């Protein structure tokens, strides 16, 4: 991989950008009646309309040249072939193997990992069935009514988002999530539950994560204090790569669901980490989620670059970031069930591409990952959309909706959809001073009523947010992130930036609980002293 700024297409894009910057999308639409057709792409019932981005046919051609010059097809091939593209940890990135039902052979380090994947999927299928149908019972013989997933980061955000997104498909059992080391979260969750009918799923790839271990110990005390130590067997299962740690915790490794180093935390919901999803919606629906992701994988692997959804979105992301200097991106699902999608994508995107050192160990001299945030529409409209429409900062956005709701209630869904359509139109078109005046705006208020427009957005529409479509949507974002990471020549699969704070917290924790001398800066020392004093 190369420094992208040295590629000929990058240089041409810089020149092209000088003209493109002055163009308004309102004029682009007015002068090209085929713009939607030109800049939209479909995959089954998924429609991706990227025509409301600040692109011309020349922009797209140059961006596609950039993809060729950066050898994105080669990079895609390397990922699917299991090459160690996570170069700082010398690991392959094989989450795509987890959802490939068609393939019987996926080699990693000379070993075919497919039989192990299939074995764990089978184990998940049987276990989720037993829990859902009252065949797996608590220590007192009671049926399991509530499952609590304890995990954090990649061992929480994906399953939590998917369980919420597919709540319509929920069967028999309620699934809860605890991630924060803040004792409030576990206290509030278990307060409402009966230990005799509660099953804890402890999700930790490493089995060393402080937050998860602490919450798991609290859960273990809650169960054993009431039901006795022998109850662990029926009330705890583990999702981990660390059999020894699981067994030392007291969970029989027969009740452990394995996964592997090559499934990165934030890409692991397709693995054993997806067990809470399978328990919530049933294994057949979980399989549909995998199949949807596989459909996107197949498209990503085979579609020409110019029709390849993740490639197009990744290229537009780079265009926005590096050429139009758009530093933030909003994810705006017009679907209440997708309310955790922005939180999930914050990790997927920002932990993957929030990097400033390239794959060769050199500091990059260009921008990488954008700041990502979002809220379901229409709530966001009554909150931060003011800045989207009229702020000094230009922000790109993704609007996501389905034509049909699972809860069609009178006019609710048409009204929701009208906002899904109108907001991108307003962001693109804006309102001129003349238009404001024509609408009777008094002269002194005209400046406030002008909308510059020209704010880029992409709209993604499905028929319904089924498990299959959710799989497609998530895989689309995973691959978009991959494309951007490859174009930026960074490793999207490590996360060294989360370590320093953790290291310092270990030291501070001991200091908060003792009188030890402090050797930090004056602010940190003073804050520790304050806490000591207030908690004395
Ligand atoms: C994700 C990261 C990180 C990880 C958590 C939990 O890609 O690696 O978010 O998932 O730190 O780690 P464990 O699963 O090991 O507890």
Q: What distinguishing features does this structure have?
A:
five-stranded parallel sheet, 47% helix, six-stranded mixed sheet, binds glucose-6-phosphate, 13 strands, single chain, 536 residues, 22 helices, alpha/beta
Helices and strands in order, then pairings?
Blueprint (H helix, E strand, L loop, with lengths): L7 H13 L4 H7 L3 H4 L1 E4 L2 E4 L7 H13 L2 H9 L26 E2 L2 E2 L1 H19 L13 E5 L6 H9 L8 E5 L4 H9 L6 E6 L6 H18 L4 H4 E5 L2 H7 L6 E3 L16 H7 L1 H20 L6 H15 L4 E6 L7 H13 L17 E4 L10 H6 L4 E8 L9 H18 L3 H6 L7 H4 L7 E6 L4 H21 L11 H14 L9 H14 L1
Parallel strand pairs: 5-6, 5-7, 7-8, 8-9, 10-11, 10-12, 12-13
Antiparallel strand pairs: 1-2, 2-13, 3-4
The chain binds glucose-6-phosphate.
Give a short summary of the structure.
With 536 residues, the protein is of the alpha/beta class. The chain contains 22 helices and 13 strands. Helix 14 (309-323) crosses helix 20 (467-487).
